[in-house]
Design a protein that fits this description.
about 150 residues
Length: about 150
């Protein structure tokens, strides 16, 4: 039996507040940008930092959690599948998109200032459950298993 896997795992910071909309059929969807950064030494020995931006697409009951709790600057652990799509812009040019269709995420901490509790202590990098925040990973059932 041949089996394939399409899975992306990211830990990064949310780049903007979630954009929540409804599709024509009434399903709710949230779009969020997530930044991941890496540091490396270039050939001259200077330290460089590179940031990659990822488009997250969230469906189902996860939209309610994202809408209520996720804000710009928050740190997230995300699992999902990579999806490619294309669309036409106003001028008729084809635009290509790469999205992470989120299946599961964990809120690792807040970057915000004066909103709600802060989740994790500043600089801890770890997950610290606090009142009002889910203490377990939030998942969508995986209905599209091939077996």
């Amino acid at each position: 039996m041949s089996r394939s896997v399409n899975k992306a795992t990211l830990i990064g910071n949310v780049g903007s507040d979630p954009d929540v909309r409804a599709t024509a059929s009434g399903a709710r969807v949230a779009k969020v940008s997530l930044a991941t950064s890496r540091t490396f030494q270039d050939r001259s020995g200077a330290t460089q930092e590179r940031t990659e931006w990822h488009r997250l697409t969230i469906w189902g009951r996860l939209v309610d959690v994202v809408e209520q709790w996720v804000r710009k600057g928050d740190r997230l652990y995300v699992e999902g599948r990579i999806e490619y799509s294309e669309s036409q812009d106003d001028r008729g040019n084809t635009r290509y998109w790469t999205d992470i269709n989120v299946r599961e995420f964990v809120m690792l901490g807040s970057g915000g200032g004066d909103r709600r509790d802060q989740g994790a202590e500043a600089g801890s990098g770890g997950y610290t459950p606090s009142p009002g925040r889910p203490a377990v990973p939030i998942t969508e059932p995986d209905d599209d298993l091939p077996f």
